[in-house]
Amino acid sequence: RRFSDGTQVVIKMNNFSVLLLLLAATLLPAEDARADDKRGFAVNVGVGASEISDKDGADRFKGNGFGYSIGAEYRFNRNFALGFGIFSLGTAEDEFAGTTTEIEVRGADFLMRFIVPVNEGFEFYGSVGQSWYTADLEPGGNNGLFGDTAVEFGLGLDIGSGPLAFRLAARYFDGPKDEAGALLTAGFNYLF
Fold first, then answer.
1. Cα–Cα distance between 68 and 86 in angstroms, integer?
2. What SS3 class is residue 34?
3. What confidence tens digit (pLDDT) does each residue in 148-160 have?
4. How many Å is the Cα radius of gyration of the chain?
5. Which residues sit opposite 174 in a β-bridge?
6. Distance CA 66, CA 114 (A)
7. Cβ-based neighbours of 129, under 8 Å, separated by 6 or more
8. Is omega for the bond preceding 117 within 30 degrees of 0, making it cis?
9. Spatial distance between the Cα atoms of 112 and 25, rounded to a whole number of angstroms
10. pTM of the model
């Protein structure tokens, strides 16, 4: 904004600043959230299909595998939780640079979950976070050949009215240099 005296104020926000503002807004509990019993520690596990893709010049790798996720979180109120976990996108195979290639991806993540309760036994959520991953490549035995950080986005659904809920989740990992992954899981979430 430019003022009449010529002074200019510029506000710059990076992705981390936006995430901190979202976090602060969701930690301010609404009156009905204080009475809600959906607070506390939770653990979750899921297994399902995965996809690993990478592009190097004109060569493109895109393969499917079988992956899993294991996590823990703290749910602050009925609408927000912070969590961390480990995941594997399994091993995927494809033709890459004229050679049959297998890539295995695994890592850890830190997530913020934004929850929208529909009723007592049904909740939708979206998640955003940061993942750290490494990959092994065969042939060649190049373990840890590439790996980096990725922005992680997810959508999910919890079904269950007690502490144990059935969970369906979809997660997308957007890594650097055209590296990406996806994980679609079915599993459980237990709130203590």
1. 8
2. helix
3. 888 999 999 999 9
4. 20
5. 151, 180
6. 26
7. 109, 110, 111, 112, 151, 152
8. no
9. 12
10. 0.74
Instruction: Tokens for 50, please give them.
Output: 């995965």
Tokens 């399994």 correspond to 90
The tokens for 37 are 């019993």
Question: How many separate helices (H) and strands (E) can be counted in the chain?
Answer: 2, 8
Q: What CA–CA distance (Å, rounded) separates 186 from 32?
A: 30
Mean pLDDT of the region 81-103: 86
- Mean pLDDT score of the chain: 81
Q: How far apart are CA 155 and CA 119, in angstroms?
A: 18
**pLDDT tens string 34-87:** 345 678 999 999 999 999 888 776 677 888 889 999 999 999 998 999 999 999
**Which two tokens mark 177?**
């240099």
Determine the pLDDT at residue 85. Answer: 95
